[in-house]
Amino acid sequence: MKTAQEFRTGQVANIDGSPWVIQKAEFNKSGRNAAVVKMKLKNLLNGTATETVFRADDKFEPVTLGRKGVTYSYFADPLYVFMDEEYNQYELEKADIEAVLPFIEDGMTDECAAVFYEDKVISIELPTTIEREIIYTEPSVRGDSSGKVMKTARLSTGHELQVSSFCEIGDSIEIDTRTGEYKSRVKA
């Protein structure tokens, strides 16, 4: 058993007999009030989401999830299909992979992990760092080199993020999939 304040974002807790993934957890201790943890939760069985507040010392059973290596195969509206080494296919809806969707593209070769709960695929995890190509960004402003200057760039999936000012169209960049932020430009 773990207390509510020990759970972190991405972990799964058994609350009232159902597995809930913690999408956001904020610890709060103010004045004379008891310490509380405000959590944004998503039920892994039916997909419902809720926000609730627990006392910091409320106890829940952690849930262990299974993982298996898969690669993205294709999009069959409205399902995203992933395949493992034994050619087993796993179909997920857009809502199940919303967090990684900005980085899913046709032809990607990144080794992903399918997350299982009781033999049912519930989500996909991408590698911590992935490489993607910039398809559009504004040209750099000459002389604007003081400090950490960032500009907006668009990937082939339509996702936009902030990159360093020296990045150009056609450059490959590394992205941290946990935060969705630019890490560095890949040297050719």
From TrEMBL:
Q: Which NCBIfam families match?
A: efp, PRK00529.1
* Function noted in UniProt: Involved in peptide bond synthesis. Stimulates efficient translation and peptide-bond synthesis on native or reconstituted 70S ribosomes in vitro. Probably functions indirectly by altering the affinity of the ribosome for aminoacyl-tRNA, thus increasing their reactivity as acceptors for peptidyl transferase.
Q: In which pathway does it act?
A: Protein biosynthesis; polypeptide chain elongation
One family name in Pfam for this protein: Elong-fact-P_C
Gene3D superfamilies registered for this protein in UniProt = 2.30.30.30, Nucleic acid-binding proteins
Q: Which GO terms describe its molecular function?
A: translation elongation factor activity
InterPro entries annotated for this entry? Elong-fact-P_C, NA-bd_OB-fold, Rib_uL2_dom2, Transl_elong_fac_P/YeiP, Transl_elong_KOW-like, Transl_elong_P/YeiP_cen, Transl_elongation_fac_P, Translation_prot_SH3-like_sf
Indicate the segments annotated as coiled coil, or none if absent.
none
- Descriptive protein name: Elongation factor P
TM ranges: none
Q: Which UniProt keywords apply?
A: Cytoplasm, Elongation factor, Protein biosynthesis
Q: Which locations, inside or outside the cell, does it occupy? A: Cytoplasm
